Amino acid sequence: MAGILAWFWNERFWLPHNVTWADLKNTEEATFPQAEDLYLAFPLAFCIFMVRLLFERFVAKPCAIALHIQANGPQIAQPNAILEKVFTAITKHPDEKRLEGLSKQLDWDVRSIQRWFRQRRNQEKPSTLTRFCESMWRFSFYLYVFTYGVRFLKKTPWLWNTRHCWYNYPYQPLTADLHYYYILELSFYWSLMFSQFTDIKRKDFGIMFLHHLVSIFLITFSYVNNMARVGTLVLCLHDSADALLEAAKMANYAKFQKMCDLLFVMFAMVFITTRLGIFPLWVLNTTLFESWEIVGPYPSWWVFNLLLLLIQGLNCFWSYLIVKIACKAISKGKAGKWNPLHVSKDDRSDIESSSDEEDSEHSGKSSHTATTTNGTSGTNGYLLTGPCSADD
To answer: How far is the C-alpha of 346 from the C-alpha of 180, rounded, in Å?
Structure first.
C-alpha cells in the first residue's frame, strides 16, 4: 500500500519541476490546499441532501401549492394481471405482433391495449409538483452559489487579469473564502452523483453522470495541485446559466408560458455566450497558453487541460441541442401562435402524449414518446440534458 501511495502521489506528476509536497505544507505564515481537506465533502454532501429534503417539503411544496400546481399524477391504468406481467417482465413498449396476441388473449382491441401501456408508463412518471420542487431546490442552490462566486471573485486579482492565476504558482495561499467555495461546489456535485439515482429519471442520465463525474474529478484534481484560482473561474462561469434554466422550468410548471419563454431565451443566450465564447477565449486561453508561458507544462498540467477540453466538448454538445430546439420551436411558431421556444413540457422527463391522435398514430407500431422542450443540467443540469444544466 505504501508503494501504491508513493506512486500515486508522485511529485513529478502532480507538481512543477523542483517543487515537492513538503514545500506546500501548511505553516503559520501560509495555508495551502491539502488532499485530506477533500474528505469534508462527503459529510457535507449528506448535509446538502438532507437540506434539500427539508427545503422541498417545507419551502418548495407550499410555494407550488400557492401557485395551484397539482400533486395529482397521471391517470392510473386499470388493474390487469396479464398486461402487468408483460409490462414488468417483458417490455414496456410492445410491438405489433405482441399487441395482436394480447388482443386475442384478453379480447381487447389493440387501441385499448396501447392506451393501457401508455397509462402504465405515465404512471411511473413523477407529478408536476415533484418536478417543481426539484427545480426550485436547484434554482435556489445555483443562485446562491453563483452569487457567492461573483462576490468572492470580484475582490480577487485573477478575475481581472488571469495571469495572476499563475504568478508564484504553486505557492499561492489558500484563503478561507476560496476553501469554502471549493468544498461547497464539490459537496454539491457529490450529492448530485448520489441523488441522480433517486431523482426523476431522464433521457440524458448517461451524459449527466459523465458530466458530474468529470466535474468532481476536475474540482478534486485542481484543488490537490493548487490550481484553485483558475478553478474558481471555471466554476463561476459554468454556474451562470443554470439558475435561469431552473427558473424557466418553474415558470413552465406554474403555466406562466410567456415568462417561461423569456427565461429560456435568456438561458440560451447566457449559456452559449459563456460556454462557447468566454470559456474558450478566457479560461482555456489562460490554462493552455498563459500557464505554459509562466509555469511551463508538466504531467498533471496536461491532465487538467484535457479535462477542461472534455468539459468544452460537453458544452458544444449541449449548445447544439439548445440551438436545435430553438430552431424547431421557431419553425413551429410560423404555423401558429408565436412561441419562441415551445417549452410546454420537460423534454428530459419523457412525458408521453395521451391524445387519441397518438393512439391511431401508434397503431401497428411500438409506442413512442411525444415530447417538447424545456430540459436541463445540471448543470451543474443541462438541456436535454439540459441543461443542462444543463446541474452544469
So the answer is: 33
Measured CA to CA, the distance from residue 38 to residue 135 in angstroms comes to 28
Long-range contacts of 202-205 (CB under 8 A, 24+ apart): 202/348, 202/349, 202/350, 202/375, 202/385, 203/347, 203/348, 203/350, 203/384, 204/348, 204/375, 204/382, 204/384, 204/385, 204/386, 204/388
pLDDT band, very low/low/confident/very high, at 200 (cuts 50, 70, 90): low
Report the percent of the chain where pLDDT is more than 90: 55
* C-alpha Rg value of the chain to the nearest Å: 24
Distance CA 33, CA 230 (A): 14
CA atoms within 13 A on the CB side of 389: 36
pLDDT value of position 360: 39
Look-up of cell digits 405515465: 122
pLDDT per residue as tens digits for the range 175-185: 999 999 999 99
Report how far residue 338's alpha carbon sits from residue 368's, in angstroms, rounded to the nearest whole number.
27
Residue type, 112: S
**pLDDT at 382 > cutoff 70:** no
3-state secondary structure the chain: CHHHHHHHCCHHHHCCCCCCHHHHCCCCCCCCCCHHHHHHHHHHHHHHHHHHHHHHHHHHHHHHHHCCCCCCCCCCCCCCHHHHHHHHHCCCCCCHHHHHHHHHHHCCCHHHHHHHHHHHHHHCCCCHHHHHHHHHHHHHHHHHHHHHHHHHHCCCHHHHCHHHHCCCCCCCCCCHHHHHHHHHHHHHHHHHHHHCCCCCCCCCHHHHHHHHHHHHHHHHHHHHCCCHHHHHHHHHHHHCCHHHHHHHHHHHHCCCHHHHHHHHHHHHHHHHHHHHHHHHHHHHHHHHHHHHHHCCCCHHHHHHHHHHHHHHHHHHHHHHHHHHHHHHHHHHHCCCCCCCCCCCCCHHHCCCCCCHHHHHHHCCCCCCCCCCCCCCCCCCCCCCCCCCCCCC
**pLDDT tens digits, 35-50:** 999 999 999 999 999 9
Greater confidence (377 vs 331) lies with 331
| Neighbour count for residue 154 (Cβ, 10 Å) | 9
Cβ contact 295:169 at 8 Å: yes
